Every structure is written in structure tokens, then in C-alpha cells.
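seq:
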Amino acid sequence: MESSLGTDVEVLSVWFPFECSIMDIVFRFLFLTCYDLIFSALFMRFLFYKRYHSQLDNIRERGILPVLETALLHYIGTGFLIVFALLFYFILFPAQINQQAKSALEILATAYFVVGPFFYLYLAIQKKISREAPSRTFIAARFFLYIPSRLFRIIFKKNGVHAPFFPDTQTKYAVLGVLVKFFFAPLMISFFFINVDRFASSFSHILLWASDGYEGISADRLWNYLYVSSVNALFVVDTLIFSFAYLVESDYLGNRVRSVESTVGGWASALVCYPPFNFFARQSLVSIGGGALNPSSFPVMGFQFIIVFQSIALILFVIYVWASVALGSRAGNLTNRGIVAVGPYRYIRHPAYVAKNLSWFFEVLPFFSHPLQLLSWILWAGIYVVRAVTEERHLSKDSSYIEYRKNVPYRFIPGIV
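struct:
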């Protein structure tokens, strides 16, 4: 199997081919689990003995079995979640992400199967995880493993007592945190490759024009190539930042998840902005407007107005990506990974939402041919207002965000609101 970027992943596809069955994936996972457990134990014994002599003495005092047990359980628990993600995106809902993102998931999954044992052995040796203090990922995996029995107890109310869906708050936030990564990380990776492909396609036309490969190309067509390639280049940066942030979480980067949005309104307002939910939202708007909400495929303004309005849109897209760069490894939806007060966040609390919605407005303004089309933009802007309100309600549980609100009192427009 080969991606459109020319990345040969045939070796990886032997282990996780797109056409493989559920049993094939489970078998390969179990095989790699046994292999990595044995190999990692030998590796630690013969290669790291001298370097980590004091740590190994500590293991002997505590007992080797508890450390290996902790590492093994965490490795298998996280692997269980990875296998479930592969099943979801490869078999159950393959259209959710593109083929290049699937190839990236194959690479990441294989990397985990190889590196995972060493990682969890290290954490267990350093006492960063233990049976008494497991990681959030392991807590979530344990919850999903026992979800059938938990649903049985909830439905049939054992001894007449209603059992809560989540056994405790720690499990609730662990599960929600995993779901955030499970949904957004593959999606951001898919968006990244989509924007890379679109940038390459548009920019190739510009290079061809620059080398006199195009004769008599119209000015509006050239501008369209310049505009599209610029926007896609910006979104390559944006999606790369968010992909990294969803995949990597560490104390060194200071982007550990502190809390997760737990309300239905917060999740609904965020998910409706992403596939597949935004498709249904758009279709609902189109059905309400009888098709009048769709902008025309042809501009209703002159070329000079297109350049002006789309230039404004491009500047706003730059501000949007500036906000993503300011967030850095703390970027993400529905989570608090630390308060950011640099870049455009020094002036307003939601610069990304403002810049994104205004850029959409100016981008399609030259194509508006019906007053009702403005209603579509207003409704989407309203959704982002709801997102901002629910995010602030969630983040206000953090005292540092309360202090940030005092220093930056405006949500959307400096000095106004």
C-alpha cells in the first residue's frame, strides 16, 4: 500500500492491512504483546543493567513481579485502546479519515507495539505508575473492558440499587480524555494530509505558470491558485500542531490534561463543527433554506472585490494560525491543558474563533447571491459563541483561568465584548 505522498508502507501493512479482519488485527496484537514483553525484559536485563543498576536494586527491594505486572497491564491496556481505534477507523467507519491518515495510524500503532514495553517499564521503575496509581489511559481501558457488565448492572439494577455509569470521577475524566484523543487525533492527521495534498496541487500550478508552462492564464485563475495554496499552507501548520498536541502529552511540555469538558452542551457544540456531524448540520441548514443558503459557485462581484475580500480573509487565517502556534502543544478541544496568555490571547480570549469565522465570511462574501446565505454564517458563528461560553465555563474551574479573565476581560472584540 502506498500513500499519495509516496510513502511506502507495505511492510507495516503486513501487520495491519486495510483489508484485514478483526481476528487478524487481534492476533497480530497478541503476538506483538508476547514478543515485546519477552524482548523488553531481556533488553532491560542485558543492555541497561549497568546504567540503571541503582534502579534495578530498587526493583529487587520492591520485587520484580509488581513492576513487570504494572508495565504489562499498562501496555496491554493501551494496546487494547489502539486496537479498538484501528477497528473503528479501518473497518467500522473507514470514510471518517483518508487513506494517508490510516497509513499514519499504522505507523504509530506499530511504533507503540515496539516502544511501548520500554516506555511502561521505565515509568514503573521510576514509580510514575503503579497498581495503586495507574495512568489515565489504563483507567479508561479498564472501564471499556468491563463496560458490558457495567451496563448489565445499570439496566437490571442489582439489589434494586441504581449503578452509576462511571464508578468514580477519576474514571469519568479518564474515559472522556481518551475519547477526545480517539476522535480528534486521527481527524487532525487526516486534515493535515488533505491540506498537504491541496497545497501541493495548487502550488504546482503556480510553479508551472512561473516556468511559462501556462500560456494566457487568466488573472482570476492565478489568484485562485495563490489564495488556495496560501490558505492550505497555513492549515498544514495548524493541523500539524493539533495532531502533535493530541498525540503527545508530557510533563516536560507542560501539556498534561488537567480536566475534561463533561457537559453535553460542551461536547455537542464542539463536535458539530467537525465531520461527520458538521455534514448533517449543513444539510439541515440547506433543507431549511431550500438551497438558498448555499453560496453560488460563481462570484457575483468583480475580480477586484474578490482580491480585496479574500486578502482580508487570508490575513484573518494568519491570525487564526498565530493562535494555534501560541497554543502549541497545549492545543486541543474539550480539555484544559494549561492556560495560554501569549500571542493573540493577550488581547482577547477567543482569537481563533473570531479569526476563523470572520475569514469564512470574507472568503465567501463575493459569492453571496441571496440574503438568506448570511443566515448560514450567522448560525455557524452562533455555534462558535456557544463553544466559547461552554469552554469558559469549563476552564473557570481553574484558578489560573479566573486570573487570566481578569487580565484579558474581552472575549471576541478588544474593548467591546
